[in-house]
Design brief:
The complex is a heterodimer of chains A (244) and B (331). Chain A has 244 residues and is α/β, with parallel strands linked by helices. In chain A, 37% of the residues lie in helices and 27% in strands. In chain A, strand 1 and strand 2 form a beta hairpin. The longest helix of chain A has 16 residues. By secondary structure, chain B is mainly α. Chain B has a two-stranded antiparallel ribbon. Chain B has a two-stranded antiparallel sheet with strand order 2-3. The two termini of chain B are 34 Å apart. Classes of the chains: A alpha/beta (244), B mainly alpha (331). At the A-B interface, helix 2 of A face helix 8 and helix 9 of B.
């Protein structure tokens, strides 16, 4: 994790305020090209704020956010998205009144669906095919999450930011989602994944950054963290270790 | 099973409301006047829709409360007066083609003038007060007063007649019912505008972006769309529609005054609230409902006409607190 030579995304001393409150206190980490970086931490540690700051939804007050050599801290969200960064928020960001097809179409380039990409998404998430012309608001929680991730990968993206995709899903849905994430991993997609489910983090993560109180308190290999129970306990507390 | 049935009922009940009102009015009013009042109500509703639809999208997309919307109604009506005066030869001719050509020119001029003013208004006024509702209310009410006074400076303080074209005066008779020809014309124009809007919103990519932006502004930006730029277009289109509505409304009343839009404002806000903020479909149904209720109640108990719409709004809010077809989750 310390070898940042192949970093696609680099955060250096990022501070973010929400209103009068400072949430991020100098966040530093890198997401390496072609790898899955897990962003872990207790509730309120600043994980979601970090993702939103990268996307430009909340502006960094201080510090640098470098994406593929380009500073994006001052850029507007649409510009950041057009650089090839896809964001799956915690609430999934599904347009409930639009159909599944329309939700997906919004994430495509102007020419519309590329058949190869569409086939890949529908193969990973067959439920979307069945519900193709249904309002997205009528989908189950798991199906909505699949739509959110499917929408993020319907075009070739350079970086995926995914916020707690397994939250509230049934074990069967989680398995399906993990399979899809592993497939993305095999395709060398660069992913920054916030996750509370440690079993999922172990299954898909290559690298890990652990946050606490708006700071990065640990970076390293996910495999090393998953075998070191004492470190898990110290960094993440009982709740995360208990999910083992 | 019974829960499913209840869910379906809740889903379809808002759609059934307007037909129920129309059917319920028939035995109370009697067939002859019922036909006349129903067409009048539909016409009034469709004209209100033209004005209200832009406002609901403007609010839905950017949470902008534009109380100056009425000014664009007035500008459209006055520009139409200025265009139709030199075209009096066409409008007084007993030729439907010439009459419609004159109206088309006036309608386009009203839309262009109001839309252009809307563009400047968004740049100079609205852009300064994004995300500040109280300032929006104050500045747009102030701007409404300024624009109305400028209209008086340009066109004078007296109301100006806006006669209907020769072929659209008078009435057609269906059995014992008489229907004003102009109302039929206005109904056709309004339906054409509503259909065009529906096609734009459902069949074009930009329309899709607008619908999605109304639902979740942040997510649409995260997908790479510049919502501010989209909003400028929607604001212009909304004000252009208000201008068209102003022209139609002015001709419907046969007279144009600087406060023509003010008389519609209360009804327009009732429609927005009934339909659900940000929902164009809800706005359409709300407008038709308000138009019909105004006409039916105006016939049965004239003093209750405006009060009936306020009562209608209160009843609908008791039933559906976020309106019939709520969309914008971020409000």
């Amino acid at each position: 994790m310390t070898d940042a030579g192949d970093a696609l995304l680099r955060l250096e001393g990022v501070y973010t305020n929400i209103g009068r409150y400072r949430i991020l206190h100098g966040v530093d980490f890198v997401a390496r090209r072609g790898r899955v970086t897990m962003l872990l931490g207790r509730n309120g540690a600043g994980k979601t704020t970090t993702l939103r700051t990268i996307m430009g939804l909340w502006k960094a007050r201080l510090g640098k956010i470098i994406f593929d050599g380009q500073s994006i801290a001052a850029k507007e969200t649409p510009h950041i998205a057009r650089l090839g960064i896809a964001y799956v928020p915690e609430n999934m960001g599904i347009f409930g009144k639009l159909t599944v097809r329309e939700n997906m179409l919004l994430a495509t380039e102007r020419r519309g669906f590329a058949q190869q990409h569409l086939d890949r998404v529908l193969e990973s998430f067959p439920a979307l095919k069945v519900k193709w012309e249904s309002p997205a608001g009528s989908l189950s929680g798991g199906q909505k999450q699949m739509l959110a991730i499917g929408r993020a990968i319907i075009e070739q993206r350079r970086l995926l930011l995914i916020d707690e995709p397994t939250k509230g899903l049934s074990p069967a849905m989680v398995d399906q989602l993990v399979a899809a994430l592993l497939r993305l991993k095999r395709e060398h997609t660069t992913i920054l994944l916030v996750e509370q489910n440690f079993r999922v983090a172990e299954a898909v993560g290559d690298d890990v950054a652990v946050m606490d109180e708006g700071r990065i308190i640990h970076t390293g290999d996910m495999a090393a963290l998953s075998t070191n129970h004492a470190l898990q306990h110290r960094l993440l507390g009982l709740s995360m270790a208990d999910s083992l | 099973m019974s829960r499913d049935w209840l869910k379906q009922l809740q889903r379809w009940a808002p759609y059934a409301l307007t037909p129920l009102v129309v059917i319920a009015a028939l035995p109370v009013i009697g067939l002859g006047p019922w036909v006349t009042l129903t067409v009048a109500g539909l016409t009034m509703g469709i004209m209100l829709f033209m004005v209200a639809s832009g406002l609901t999208l403007i609010f839905g997309l950017m949470d902008v409360l534009n109380f100056a919307h009425a000014a664009f109604v007035a500008v459209g009506a006055y520009v139409a007066v200025s265009v139709l005066q030199p075209l009096a030869g066409w409008t007084n001719e007993m030729s439907l083609a010439l009459n419609l050509a004159a109206l088309l020119v006036a309608l386009i001029a009203a839309a262009v003038a109001s839309g252009a003013l809307g563009f400047v208004f968004e740049r100079v006024i609205i852009r300064q007060v994004y995300g500040a509702p109280l300032r929006q209310i104050l500045i747009t009410i102030g701007a409404l007063t300024v624009i109305e006074q400028l209209i008086i400076v340009i066109w004078g303080p007296q109301a100006i007649p806006l006669p209907k074209p020769a072929m659209l005066r008078g009435s057609v008779f269906i059995g014992s019912s008489s229907i004003e020809t102009y109302r039929l014309f206005a109904l056709c124009v309004g339906l054409a505008v509503a259909a065009a809007m529906h096609l734009f919103l459902t069949r074009t990519r930009l329309g899709l972006v607008v619908r999605a932006g109304v639902e979740d502004r942040e997510m649409i930006q995260s997908l790479g769309y510049n919502i501010r730029r989209v909003f400028v277009g929607v604001f212009m289109a909304g004000t252009a529609l208000a201008g068209m509505g102003g022209m139609m409304w002015g001709q419907y009343q046969a007279v144009v005054g600087s406060q023509i839009g003010d008389s519609m404002t209360i009804l327009v806000f009732i429609i927005l609230i009934i339909g659900g903020l940000g929902s164009v479909g809800g706005c359409f149904i709300g407008a038709i409902l308000v138009g019909l209720t105004s006409n039916y109640v105006g016939f049965l108990a004239p003093k209750m006409a405006l009060g009936s719409n306020i009562l209608l709004m209160a009843l609908i809010l008791l039933w559906q607190p976020r309106g019939l077809f709520p969309i914008a989750e971020h409000h």
